[in-house]
């Protein structure tokens, strides 16, 4: 009788999704500065002033979340800030638990490289395919994962995948599938048409990329992204983010100090007192706080595409008051 071989799971920080680089997601200030005042380039090679291969933070390096896993670990994920995706050779990526660091390799003449700089929702378009592929590989057919850092995948139509442990990842790739991540820093992704992704833990990320998909993030600093046509994204936790980038998409935020974004044919709805709006040409936003109601159109806001304005009690302000 042939002996079964145990599946070898490639660690997240070594996963290249069929290519030769690991994609690492990072958030920086809008002036492109990060910890210690280091200034990131908008594109091209990036070299930190201090780095080593020691698996710690103090020895320096370029820090982030491999393929978006562990989002929020070590740094608050400000969805209204600037997001970077940088690529590094897997031999130059060091695992730090829920985050990673990448370093230059002078002997091999290699250096990490910035491949994207912009909005969170656009950065996801680069990292989500590799994120989903890793979950499928690691889950090996499991529909439920209850331990920390577990992975669950459901690939058939109307399938359900659930990851309940912290840092868990659930992916449903079939039509009308459902993916749920309930632990902190969990990631739920539904890529099929009419799929539903729900992340209820703090710093959770829910992404629905298929048409008519629904993404919901209810925990603190959660992010909900619906990129397919007629998609719906809802973020109800404090400092959450809801983005609907497909045609006729709808984004809803109810939590304070959250960020919202919709496309030119989408509608944004807000009921919180303070929020941030990433303005896109043609976008429309409906805001209600108490008895006050306002309809805002991007054409009436004098900012560039992708810029963020702050709103308080249905009025645009320079800074929030408390």
UniProtKB/TrEMBL annotation:
Residues 147-194 are annotated as: Disordered. InterPro entries: Serralysin-like_metalloprot_C. SUPFAM superfamilies: beta-Roll. This is Uncharacterized protein. It comes from Planctomicrobium piriforme.
């Amino acid at each position: 009788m042939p002996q079964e071989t145990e599946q070898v799971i490639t660690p997240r920080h070594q996963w290249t999704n069929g290519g030769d680089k690991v994609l690492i997601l990072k958030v920086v200030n809008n002036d492109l500065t990060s910890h210690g005042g280091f200034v990131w380039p908008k594109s091209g090679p990036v070299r930190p002033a201090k780095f080593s291969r020691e698996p710690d933070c103090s020895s320096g390096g370029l820090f982030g979340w491999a393929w978006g896993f562990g989002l929020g670990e070590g740094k608050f994920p400000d969805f209204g800030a600037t997001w970077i995706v940088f690529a590094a050779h897997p031999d130059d990526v060091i695992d730090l638990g829920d985050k990673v660091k990448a370093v230059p390799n002078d002997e091999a003449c290699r250096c990490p490289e910035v491949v994207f700089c912009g909005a969170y929702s656009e950065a996801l378009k680069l990292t989500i395919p590799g994120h989903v592929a890793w979950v499928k590989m690691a889950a090996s057919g499991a529909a439920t994962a209850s331990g920390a850092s577990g992975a669950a995948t459901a690939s058939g139509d109307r399938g359900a995948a659930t990851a309940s442990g912290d840092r868990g990842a659930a992916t449903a790739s079939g039509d009308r599938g459902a993916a749920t991540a309930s632990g902190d820093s969990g990631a739920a992704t539904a890529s099929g048409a009419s799929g539903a992704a729900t992340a209820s833990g703090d710093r959770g990320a829910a992404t629905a990329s298929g048409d008519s998909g629904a993404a919901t993030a209810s925990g603190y600093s959660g992010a909900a992204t619906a990129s397919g046509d007629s998609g719906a994204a809802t973020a109800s936790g404090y400092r959450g983010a809801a983005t609907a980038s497909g045609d006729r998409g709808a984004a809803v935020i109810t939590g304070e100090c959250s960020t919202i974004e919709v496309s030119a044919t989408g509608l944004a709805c807000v009921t919180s007192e303070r929020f941030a709006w990433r303005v896109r040409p043609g976008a429309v936003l409906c805001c209600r706080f108490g008895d006050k109601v306002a309809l805002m159109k991007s054409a009436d806001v004098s900012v560039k595409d992708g810029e963020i304005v702050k709103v308080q009690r249905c009025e645009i302000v320079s800074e929030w008051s408390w």
